[in-house]
């Protein structure tokens, strides 16, 4: 195996010289071109180890005959950026050292061609985060060093693909956020070093399922649960089916100073199952709460329709109090809308068991209209107003509303039901009526479920109300 060292020379601005065994000095100098030479000698194919450390490199150099390289050392340089083309041709690379550079940006495909990589050192750089699935194609990697960076969070896809990893170093950085599934892909990991970070809360299940785990180093963190008692550490490790010993190193605070503790955690199905049950219970309760919230919102949104449905189908929710009045409903409308009342509205209500007071039928001939309107309102349990533009323009219609509104305020009961026909302009409406329309729901003639909604609005005044026990010949002229 040949280990190639690069040394600076001062020939034609050349800064690197590649020396190969069995190559004469004159041959070696002819292999250097530009500011960074490439190997063109036939002997280059035998080179497997390449040392480019401490060369002040700001970018990855081109590699000649890269398929022969198995180890590349680029540590202690000034490299700041890694993209997919940097190592694309190093298909047999097993050892890559990028320690102590200025690397702050890594593209997700930078290591995608390095399927044989076993060792990767990215420590002492300027990394703040790692792309998801960065190591997806590095299934043979056994040691990964990411310490001394500024990585604050590890997501659940950060280590996807690292099924052979045995040692993970994430020490001496700004790590504070760890997902409960961050380490789940590391099924063969033996040692995890997380010391000297900013970890305050560690998911209890963070190491669950890692059956080969032997060392967890959490020293130098501020775990809230880390009392100076191994039994109170609260970390679940291992699997459901196997018991084994795990060394957990952590820092706790007693009454005077910090203490580094070592615990031998015995992973059992019992201590992990408890947490799993709590996790499942939390999920179930969250789902139930979500369903109840949605159900309440739906009930509130369609509360009127539901009330209508129950009353019209099951005759429930009616008021138990029935007033002793001769009429169930007093209907008042303009003369232009009388045809609608005669042909459809009045027959429909009477068919449903309501006793009606109608102007064209029940008002005494020659009586004072104003007095008769007031008497009709007082003699009826509800007043139905047919609201149209002609109603708004009608003086007697305005009186009918005022009388029924006054009676409603007096009795402190909802007595007025408004049925709109053509939606009159509000600027033409009496102020009291306008306020009433703005604060109460109105029925629209011909809308879906109109008769059910009208029956609901009139609930408690028909079908067995006390008017059935009153003399049938009573009318307004006797009041």
TrEMBL record:
It comes from the Eukaryota. The chain crosses the membrane at residues 278-300. It is a single-pass membrane protein. GO terms for cellular component: membrane. The keyword Repeat applies. Belongs to the Toll-like receptor family. The gene is LOC118423396. SUPFAM superfamilies: L domain-like (SSF52058), Toll/Interleukin receptor TIR domain (SSF52200). One of its GO terms (biological process) is innate immune response. This is Toll-like receptor Tollo. Residues 325-458 form the TIR domain. Residues 1-28 form the signal peptide. InterPro entries: Leu-rich_rpt (IPR001611), Leu-rich_rpt_typical-subtyp (IPR003591), LRR_dom_sf (IPR032675), TIR_dom (IPR000157), Toll_tir_struct_dom_sf (IPR035897). The keyword Hydrolase does not apply. It is found in: Membrane. Keywords: Glycoprotein, Immunity, Inflammatory response, Innate immunity, Leucine-rich repeat, Membrane, Receptor, Repeat, Signal, Transmembrane, Transmembrane helix. Pfam families: LRR_8, TIR.
């Amino acid at each position: 195996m040949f280990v190639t060292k690069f040394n600076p020379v001062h020939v034609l601005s050349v800064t690197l010289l590649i020396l190969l065994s069995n190559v004469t000095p004159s041959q070696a100098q002819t292999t250097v071109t530009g500011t960074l030479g490439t190997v063109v000698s036939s002997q280059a194919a035998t080179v497997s180890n390449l040392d480019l450390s401490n060369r002040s490199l700001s970018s990855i150099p081109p590699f000649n005959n890269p398929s022969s390289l198995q180890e590349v050392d680029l540590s202690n340089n000034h490299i700041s950026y890694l993209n997919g083309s940097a190592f694309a041709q190093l298909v047999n690379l097993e050892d890559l050292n990028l320690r102590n550079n200025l690397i702050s940006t890594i593209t997700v495909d930078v290591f995608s061609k390095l399927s044989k990589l076993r060792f990767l050192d990215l420590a002492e750089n300027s990394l703040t985060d790692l792309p998801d699935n960065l190591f997806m194609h590095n299934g043979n990697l056994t040691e990964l060093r990411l310490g001394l960076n500024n990585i604050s969070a590890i997501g659940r896809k950060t280590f996807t693909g690292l099924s052979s990893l045995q040692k993970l170093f994430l020490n001496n950085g700004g790590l504070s956020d760890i997902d409960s599934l961050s380490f789940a892909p590391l099924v063969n990991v033996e040692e995890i070093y997380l010391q000297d970070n900013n970890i305050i809360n560690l998911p209890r299940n963070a190491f669950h399922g890692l059956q080969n785990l032997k060392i967890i180093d959490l020293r130098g963190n501020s775990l809230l649960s880390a009392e100076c008692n191994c039994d109170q550490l609260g970390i679940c490790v291992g699997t459901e089916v196997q018991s084994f010993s795990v060394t957990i190193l952590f820092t706790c605070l007693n009454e005077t100073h910090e203490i580094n503790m070592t615990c031998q955690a015995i992973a059992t199905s019992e201590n992990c199952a408890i947490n799993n049950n709590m996790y499942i219970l939390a999920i179930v309760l969250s789902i139930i709460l979500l369903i109840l919230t949605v159900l309440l919102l739906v009930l509130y949104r369609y509360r009127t329709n539901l009330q209508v449905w129950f009353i019209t189908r099951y005759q429930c929710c009616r008021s138990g109090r029935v007033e002793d009045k001769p009429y169930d409903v007093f209907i008042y409308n303009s003369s232009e809308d009388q045809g609608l009342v005669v042909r459809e509205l009045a027959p429909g209500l009477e068919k449903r068991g309501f006793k009606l007071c109608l102007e064209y039928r029940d008002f005494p001939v020659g009586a004072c209209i104003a007095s008769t309107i007031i008497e009709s309102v007082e003699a009826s349990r509800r007043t139905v107003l047919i609201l149209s533009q002609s109603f708004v323009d009608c003086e007697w219609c305005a009186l009918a509303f005022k009388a029924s509104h006054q009676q409603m305020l007096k009795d402190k009961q909802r007595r007025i039901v408004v049925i709109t026909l053509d939606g009159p302009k509000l600027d033409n409406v009496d102020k009291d009526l306008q306020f009433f329309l703005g604060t109460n729901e109105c029925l629209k003639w011909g809308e879906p479920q109109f008769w059910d909604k009208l029956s609901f609005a009139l609930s408690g005044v028909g079908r067995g109300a006390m008017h059935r026990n009153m003399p049938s010949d009573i009318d307004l002229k006797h009041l």
